[in-house]
Write a structure and sequence with these properties.
13 helices; mainly alpha
Length: 354
C-alpha cells in the first residue's frame, strides 16, 4: 500500500506542476481589473509571444546558415568558385554547355557525378587560373606585354581543352583498370559459379570485393537491375559504357550462357587465362619498345639541352655578345625542353599495355 500511495502522490504532484506550467501565461493577465487594463495586458502578452517566436525563428535561421557554411567549407575551393560563376553567369555558361556536344556522355562514362553546367563552370575556372599562371610566369621572365597576353591566351585555351578532354582521360584510365582486373574478377566469379551460386550473386560478391573500378561498375549494374532493368539490358549498357573489346567478349559470353545455357564457370576460367596470356605478350612487347625509346628520351632531355647551352655560349663568345635574348633562352630551358620531355613520357605511358 505504501508503494501505491507514493505513486499516487507522485502523479498528483506531476499533474499540479503541469497545470501550473500551462496556466503560467494566463497568470500574467490581471484579475479583477477593468476591461481596458485586461486588454492592454493581453496586447503586451501578445507582443511577448511574438518576440519569443521571432527569436526562435532567428535562432533557426542562424543554425541553417551555420550548417550551410559548414557544407561550403567541406567543398573544394574550385567547386565554390564554379558554383559562384554558375550563379552569376548562368546564361553564358548554359549556352557554352549546349555547344559542347557529347559532354554528358563523357561524364557518364567517366563516372563523374557532376551536372554539365557545373562542370563547364569548373572548366572556365581552371582555364582562368592557367592563363593567370602563365601570365605571371611571362612577367617574371621579363617578356613583353604582347607576349604576356599571348601566354595568357594560350593558357586559357590549353586549360579549357585539357578540362574538356579530362572526362575522356578518366574513362580510358577506368577502362584500362577494368581490363587489368578482369582476369581476377572472372576467376572470382567462376569459383562461385562452380559452387552453385547464381550469376547475379557472383557479381555482387565481386562488387563487394576490392577489384577497383570493375567492382564499382558491377555495383552500378546491380543497381540498374534493382531499379527494374533486366540483366540483359543492364549488361548491354555496361558494355556500351566501357566500349572495350575484352569487356564486350565477357558480356556476350555471359548473355549467351544465361540465354541458351552452358557451363559459364568453365567459360570464365578460359577467358581469364586468355586475358592473362594476352597481357603477358603485350607486356613483353612494351618492354622492348621502352628499351628502344629510352635512348631517344635521354638524348632529347639531357644531351640536347646541354648542347644548346654550349652552342649559345660558344656563339656568344665568337660574336662578343649574346646571340639570343635571355628571355628566349629561359623559355627554351624552362618550358620547351621540359614540355618535350613530358610529351615523350606521355607517349610511353600511352603505349603501356592494358
Amino acid at each position: 500500500m505504501g508503494v501505491v500511495d507514493g505513486f499516487m502522490n507522485f502523479l498528483e504532484r506531476l499533474g499540479g506542476k503541469t497545470i501550473e506550467v500551462t496556466e503560467k501565461p494566463m497568470r500574467r493577465i490581471p484579475q479583477g481589473k477593468s476591461v481596458q487594463e485586461r486588454l492592454r495586458a493581453l496586447k503586451q502578452l501578445q507582443k511577448e509571444v511574438e518576440k519569443e517566436s521571432f527569436e526562435d525563428e532567428r535562432e533557426k535561421q542562424m543554425e541553417e546558415m551555420l550548417e550551410w557554411r559548414k557544407r561550403e567549407m567541406q567543398s573544394s575551393f574550385s567547386d565554390r568558385l564554379a558554383e559562384a560563376l554558375l550563379r552569376y553567369f548562368k546564361g553564358p555558361i548554359t549556352s557554352l554547355t549546349n555547344s559542347l556536344k557529347g559532354l554528358d556522355q563523357d561524364l557518364y562514362r567517366a563516372n563523374i557525378n557532376t551536372p554539365k553546367e557545373k562542370y563547364v563552370a569548373t572548366m572556365v575556372v581552371v582555364s582562368v587560373f592557367a592563363a593567370f599562371f602563365l601570365m605571371i610566369t611571362g612577367y617574371l621572365l621579363f617578356l613583353s606585354f604582347e607576349n604576356i597576353l599571348l601566354l595568357g591566351f594560350l593558357g586559357f585555351v590549353g586549360g579549357f581543352m585539357y578540362m574538356r578532354q579530362y572526362p575522356k582521360m578518366v574513362w580510358r584510365r577506368r577502362v584500362m583498370e577494368v581490363e587489368r582486373a578482369l582476369p581476377y574478377a572472372l576467376r572470382h566469379m567462376a569459383s562461385l559459379l562452380s559452387a552453385g551460386v547464381g550469376v547475379a550473386e557472383s557479381m555482387l560478391s565481386v562488387a563487394k570485393a576490392d577489384y577497383g573500378p570493375i567492382s564499382e561498375e558491377f555495383e552500378l549494374v546491380l543497381m540498374d537491375m534493382r531499379t527494374g532493368s533486366s540483366f540483359e539490358d543492364a549488361m548491354t549498357r555496361f558494355e556500351q559504357k566501357m566500349d572495350s573489346e575484352s569487356v564486350s567478349r565477357v558480356v556476350k559470353q555471359m548473355l549467351r550462357a544465361v540465354k541458351f545455357g552452358g557451363n559459364l564457370a568453365d567459360i570464365m576460367y578460359k577467358m581469364a587465362e586468355d586475358f592473362s596470356f594476352e597481357y603477358r605478350m603485350k607486356l613483353v612487347e612494351y618492354v622492348q619498345k621502352v628499351n628502344g625509346v629510352s635512348f631517344i628520351y635521354m638524348f632529347l632531355t639531357i644531351v640536347t639541352p646541354t648542347m644548346f647551352v654550349v652552342g649559345i655560349l660558344a656563339g656568344s663568345v665568337m660574336a662578343q655578345g649574346l646571340i639570343m635574348p635571355p628571355s628566349t633562352i629561359a623559355i627554351m630551358l624552362l618550358l620547351a625542353f621540359p614540355a618535350l620531355s613530358l610529351i615523350i613520357i606521355n607517349m610511353i605511358k600511352k603505349g603501356e599495355p592494358r
